Amino acid sequence: MFMSAPGQGVKIMDMIRRPRRLRSSQAIRNMVHEYEVELSDLIYPVFVVEGTGVKEEILSMPGIYHYSLDTFRIHLEEIWNSGVRAIIFFGVPEHKDAMGSEAYNPEGIVQRAIRLTKEAYPEMICIADICLCEYTDHGHCGLIHDGKILNDETLEMLSKAALSCAAAGADMVAPSDMMDGRIGHMRRALDDKGFGDVLIMAYSIKYASAYYGPFREAAHSAPSFGDRKTYQMDWRNKKEALVEAELDVEEGADILMVKPGLAYLDILKTISDEFPLPVCTYSVSGEYSMMKAAALNGWIDEKRVVMETMTAMKRAGAKMIITYYALDIARWLKE
């Protein structure tokens, strides 16, 4: 590509391609950019607890709190004013038992939080995470017999939880348990009880990831024995992600999810390319805590790193992103 002559130095051929012209100014870069994180992409996770006057910071997730319903009501106004229009709810009950009965209690903490939200802001999209781990005294996502996680027996409990949240006003239920067949069972239960318009956002691809550590503290959901590797996916595998997604599509899921996000962008890209449904990804607690800790120590430019990370998820195919940074991102988008 280069020609030179004695005494003339280096001469560049006239026909060289110049991609840098498209980067020559911020205005040009804004004009030609391909991907951008938008306010409508964001889903904000909230942890609601029993009691009054509770706004307690989660130590491993600086800036994220447990809220009782009275303090959540105040926080809810902040969420609405930020422009974020979707919340996914996680509940931390006072009472836990082997059956996870608070998950499907019509007066459970999440059910009341959904009703409160819909009364105050009817247009807020309320998503109920559906699982038993926060509600069982053993911390596993399913019922247990002789130390074994029961699959089929758990489906009834999960569908009961989905029905109780739908009755409270949830627009969407998001089963995160990874039991086989739960999407079909839940879809039939919702349809049979007149909740045919309630969407199912399936945690279709959920790996047994070390990135969940801070969430276990936030949701008080660490298993009391063993681990979750018999139902959550092996992070060394890719092909089974296609199997899980295909099953959820066949069983009636409306939205597929890949969790975690950052370490699984290849999986996110594959699922987005292979299936016609919208795909969500969850930028999980460990991702948030790593970025937040580095930012608090002055090691990174928090805004730039977070936005670069979220854009990578959009580029990989995410239509929606569940992120603890949702309110910060909403503020940065307005700046």
TrEMBL record:
What reaction does this catalyse? 2 5-aminolevulinate = porphobilinogen + 2 H2O + H(+)
Q: What class of enzyme is it?
A: lyase
Q: What is its EC number?
A: 4.2.1.24
Q: Name one GO molecular function term.
A: zinc ion binding
> GO biological process annotations for this chain's record?
protoporphyrinogen IX biosynthetic process
Q: Note the SMART domains from the entry.
A: ALAD
| Residues annotated to bind Mg(2+) | 244
Q: Which cofactor does it need?
A: Zn(2+)
Q: In which pathway does it act?
A: Porphyrin-containing compound metabolism; protoporphyrin-IX biosynthesis; coproporphyrinogen-III from 5-aminolevulinate: step 1/4
What's the superkingdom here?
Bacteria
Which annotated residues bind 5-aminolevulinate 2? 285, 324
CC annotations in GO: cytosol
Which residues carry out catalysis?
206 (schiff-base intermediate with substrate), 259 (schiff-base intermediate with substrate)
**List of residues binding Zn(2+):** 131, 133, 141
Summarize the protein's role: Catalyzes an early step in the biosynthesis of tetrapyrroles. Binds two molecules of 5-aminolevulinate per subunit, each at a distinct site, and catalyzes their condensation to form porphobilinogen.
Q: Family assignment? A: Belongs to the ALAD family.
Q: Subunit structure of this entry?
A: Homooctamer.
Task: Spell out the protein name for this chain.
Answer: Delta-aminolevulinic acid dehydratase
Q: What is the lineage of its organism?
A: Bacteria, Bacillati, Bacillota, Clostridia, Lachnospirales
